[in-house]
Amino acid sequence: MDFPGGKVPFTEDLAWLGPGFTPRPTIPCYRALDSQGAPLPGTSLPHDIDQALATRMYETMISLQAVDTIFYEAQRQGRFSFYMTSTGEESTAVASAAALNPDDVVFTQYREQGVLMWRGYTPLDMANQCYGNALDSGKGRQMPVHYGSKALNFHTISSPLATQLPQAVGAAYALKLEGKAAVAACYFGEGAASEGDFHAALNFSATLSAPVVFICRNNGWAISTPASEQYRGDGIAGRGPSYGVPSLRVDGGDAVAVYNAVAEARRVALERRGPVLLEAMSYRSGHHSTSDDSSRYRAAEEMAAWRARDPVARFERWMAVRGWWDEARGVGARKAARREAIAALAAAAKQPRPPLSEMFSDVYDEPPPHLVAQRAEVEAFVRAHPETLPAGMPLE
Amino acid sequence: MAAILRAPGLGAVWGTVRGLATAVRQAEPATAGLDAKQMNLCSAVNDALHIAMDENPKTLVFGEDVSFGGVFRCTVGLAEKHGKHRVFNTPLCEQGIVGFGIGAAAQGYSPIVEIQFADYIFPAFDQITNEAAKYRFRSGGEFDVGGLTIRTPYGAVGHGGHYHSQSPEAFFTHIPGIKVVMPSGPRETKGLLLSAIRDPNPVVVFEAKMLYRTAVEDVPTGDYSIPLGRARIARAGSDVTLVGWGQQVLVLEQAAKELAASDGIEAEVIDLRTLLPWDADAVAASVEKTGRLVVSHEAPLTSGFGAEIVAAISDRCFYSLEAPPLRIAGYDTPFPLVCEPLYLPGVQRVVDGVRRLLRA
Ligand SMILES: Cc1ncc(C[n+]2csc(CCOP(=O)(O)OP(=O)(O)O)c2C)c(N)n1
């Protein structure tokens, strides 16, 4: 029958669909490696990972782990105010980034620094941002980990959750109108997926046929709130088909599976000129951030069990099976990555702060008269009270 | 000092007449003689929530990460004591939190909802401004959501950057139908929060998050409340009136001390406590006495709540004013990280401003 709201068949059965009545089957989780990293026979792998690619993915994940460990420690020592690790989700970020094209436009939440690193953002770039120094492209205006890079097609991170989702859909639509063979890739947590913006984004992406690849990082926790209190039904992937968005669940700790899922998602999004939703299942192995102590709300055994499923170790074993990696190389690469992270912090710490003159720039393209006046006021104030100028901040 | 600076004239006469009406007001809470203990602002909130939950079985407490105690630990122990059906986590959705609170309140419950940071209240703005605030009016008084209280931490902390620092109160003072409260310390917070919870109108309470741990003082352990809509004279003075709210009151008190010590200027500091409805009588009475007004807030200058106070006081006290009222506020930029010390209206800026005003 053609209702204005949809073409639907009739039935004589008064039958409910859904939990407690006719539950829909749980979407299974696509994977290529077992929990130890052994390849699973019969996995469909439409996108090959050759040795060079695998090596780069592995090295990026190692670098990410080194940066996370060392920057986390630096924060604990009071070198900067805040940090967030992506421990447990390294493969989700790095393997997905590897499957994207550099022209693809990326929107993230905050725990996806691996994507940026894959694109060429260095530990030094990260350190400069965390220190908010003169070399931070964000000019020291945002908290640590709020990276961004126009050159790397990576929109600057903003703390308010889920706002990037509808934005990614709009960006994808613009890419489509321009006829570009690129998608918008949009990352977010399962907690953020409870925001209204998630629902707006999925609906818009389907109705406006936007080539966007949504990548949900379902790491089981939104600060202290477990996924079991975040949603009912079949997770985040389960929502996609209801919005008209093809959806897939993938083992986020399995770099081979994530790579294939995202490469395929990208292909589908471009071919169909429409959205795709992925839900990468993993575990937030670290605390939410340096402001959090997760032992307050989750069991030590749970954390230990998941740490044992380290995604990087899984990938390393897969590479070793192929003869592409050995222990000694791994040790060397880890050492080098640590050295680079430590050197980055040391170098960033030496930089001055951005100049005071940047205090009023970029609010608009050009400062309007009231900001010109306020800037003069601050400059006069600093001249009268030089001690109020933050340490290490030049005037110009 | 005051005598030198204030030329008696028509303004002073008006000041006396208008000042009389408010002269007898009692601004301090009637907490003298109550048992008290040292509490920080976070414990004061927690204490108020326990009292509210004990007294009214229809009181609910919910929001993001509330059940384990909240990211600021304000709701610790509530779920254990009052039950998980009354104290619970919600999915991560501010519009959902406030909308759900409105529904429960309309059914006669008293939901106290937490928005994790004031910076994240905006997804709920529609529910607050179009729904909570108009529920009573649009139904001809048949329905109301007076049981609803929205608690949210606001303000600068030294390292919060754009999204963990903002003071968005002015957006909310532009909403007829809600009340807006911004307490300045632990004792104030407990008494004002209890009034907000019991007030038969929806109330937004902005809690000074920098003070959650750092401000410690004697707080009565029992039940007491501080009336909404009544300002407090935090420091008496005769030369200039400094008006602030929330954590800015501490800056004003500090500035007043410095002005007294270095210049012999006696500033009167008014803690506004409630912004909507605000205590214009108290501010006017003070300005009629001092002849000079400074309003200070962390939020950006333009369209900040200082503008409202200056407009109203200029109107009421025009003939008592000896200098143009002055606003010392955050600048009209997004809240910055590394420039935070210069962005904020700190003690030095207030001191400079008052000196300028008194020279005028
Ligand atoms: C609109 C909004 N509300 C609340 C917050 C505070 N907050 C920051 S992160 C977070 C949890 C997010 O969890 P999730 O999306 O699952 O991502 P994860 O941290 O697990 O990677 C919350 C509640 C915020 N940043 N923005």
Automatic annotation (TrEMBL), chain A:
Q: Which intervals hold domain Dehydrogenase E1 component?
A: 59-355
Cofactors (names):
thiamine diphosphate
Single GO term (MF): metal ion binding
What species does this protein belong to?
Auxenochlorella protothecoides
Q: What is its main location?
A: mitochondrion
The EC number of this protein is: 1.2.4.4
Q: Which UniProt keywords apply?
A: Metal-binding, Mitochondrion, Oxidoreductase, Potassium, Transit peptide
Homology family: Belongs to the BCKDHA family.
Please state what the protein is called. 3-methyl-2-oxobutanoate dehydrogenase (2-methylpropanoyl-transferring)
Record flagged with keyword ATP-binding: no
Q: What class of enzyme is it?
A: oxidoreductase
Q: Does the keyword Metal-binding apply?
A: yes
A GO biological-process term: branched-chain amino acid catabolic process
Question: What does UniProt give as the signal peptide span?
Answer: none
Report the domain of life of the source organism: Eukaryota
User: Where found?
Assistant: Mitochondrion matrix
Q: Which reaction does it catalyse?
A: N(6)-[(R)-lipoyl]-L-lysyl-[protein] + 3-methyl-2-oxobutanoate + H(+) = N(6)-[(R)-S(8)-2-methylpropanoyldihydrolipoyl]-L-lysyl-[protein] + CO2
A UniProt-annotated Pfam family: E1_dh
User: CDD domains recorded for this chain?
Assistant: TPP_E1_PDC_ADC_BCADC
Q: What Gene Ontology terms describe where this protein resides (cellular component)?
A: mitochondrial matrix
UniProtKB/TrEMBL annotation, chain B:
The coenzyme or cofactor needed here is:
thiamine diphosphate
Its recorded name reads 3-methyl-2-oxobutanoate dehydrogenase (2-methylpropanoyl-transferring)
Q: Which UniProt keywords apply?
A: Oxidoreductase
Q: Which organism is it from?
A: Auxenochlorella protothecoides (Green microalga)
Q: Provide the reaction this enzyme catalyses.
A: N(6)-[(R)-lipoyl]-L-lysyl-[protein] + 3-methyl-2-oxobutanoate + H(+) = N(6)-[(R)-S(8)-2-methylpropanoyldihydrolipoyl]-L-lysyl-[protein] + CO2
Domain Transketolase-like pyrimidine-binding, chain residue ranges per copy: 39-214
- Taxonomic lineage per UniProt? Eukaryota, Viridiplantae, Chlorophyta, core chlorophytes, Trebouxiophyceae
Citing just one GO molecular function, the answer is: branched-chain 2-oxo acid dehydrogenase activity
The record's top EC class is oxidoreductase
Q: Which residues form the signal peptide?
A: none
Question: What Enzyme Commission number(s) appear in the record?
Answer: 1.2.4.4
**Annotated Pfam families:** Transket_pyr, Transketolase_C
GO biological process: one example: response to nutrient
Which InterPro entries does the record cross-reference, listed alphabetically?
THDP-binding (IPR029061), Transketo_C/PFOR_II (IPR009014), Transketolase-like_Pyr-bd (IPR005475), Transketolase_C (IPR033248)
